Amino acid sequence: MDKRGSVITETIDRLKTMIVAGEFTAGQRLPTERDLAARLGVSRSSLREAIRALTLLGVLEARQGDGTYVTSLAPHLLLDAVAMLVELSPAATVLDLLSVRRVLESAAAAQAAAHITDAQLAALAACLEEMRHDPQRGDGSVDEVVAADVRFHEIVTEAAGNAVLAALIGALSGRTLRARVWRGHADQGVFARSIGEHEAIYQALRDRDATRAAAVAGAHIAAVEAFFRDAPERVLPGAGSPPDGVGPPPGPRPGAA
After folding, report:
1. How far is CA 244 from CA 19, 66, 146, 155, 241, in A?
2. Does residue 128 sit within a domain?
3. Which of 2, 41, 168, 179 has the greatest CB tally within 10 Å of its CB?
4. Does residue 115 form part of some domain?
């Protein structure tokens, strides 16, 4: 790293330290570029680069004509960078990501069992109704079934009441969702099996049974893992989508698992 790169890195670290120490709090506007550069003893160009980096990480927010502010520092903002790394990392295989997701979603389901509200249970039941359609049989809209599947899992993580856990699961969802979409292309009967797995999760949450909720949530993700593990050629590098030039098999285009 050259001298300027070292200065920028040090400036980033100093700004983070100031935020952690409470010198700049969530939602607070930073001093002007001139004043802050003088305070840190760096050039305005180095400060600009440091601010740009922290903006990309969700720590700072530039408001046109109004200066730079500390964001709310909410977990979903700060973990956006994790989501980007998951998307870009060639080493993060579908199986690796699903394995992590299985652990996190099991924990979320267990916590949700203790905290889920009647309104959230009703919302899960509504999702299940949408998921009873089977696009492989020409019944219902693929987009609606996919949306219901995604929303079902979002409600469970919201019910867990842990914003960091929800953000981590969200960071993994993009690539693992595409893996489930691809599974739908090749795994006949996946929608019928999937509705049964989701109903088991719903029933455990309705019964406030944390142990069973964790077990069935983990089993649901494990079923997706098994599909890819049993045929290694299905574990597609990167996003878990079909290779270039390879389309879905003939018939209706299914959606989620």
Report:
1. 45, 45, 23, 34, 9
2. yes
3. 179
4. yes
Against a cut of 0.85, is the pTM above it?
A: no
Q: 53 and 147 share a domain?
A: no
pLDDT at 41 over 90: yes
- Separation between Cα atoms, residue 150 and residue 160, nearest integer Å: 16
Token code pair at residue 7: 């200065």
Q: Of 73, 108, 135, which residue sits at a domain end?
A: 73
What single string gives the DSSP state of each residue in 108-130? HHHHHHHH--HHHHHHHHHHHHH
Domain count across the chain: 2
Polymer length of the chain: 257
Listed in sequence order, the residues at least 6 apart from 229 whose beta carbon sits closer than 8 Å to its beta carbon are: 95, 235
Q: Among residues of the chain, what percentage have pLDDT more than 70?
A: 79
**CB-CB contact of 128 with 251 (8 Å):** no
* Residue 66 belongs to domain spanning: 3-73
Q: Is the pLDDT of residue 87 over 70?
A: no
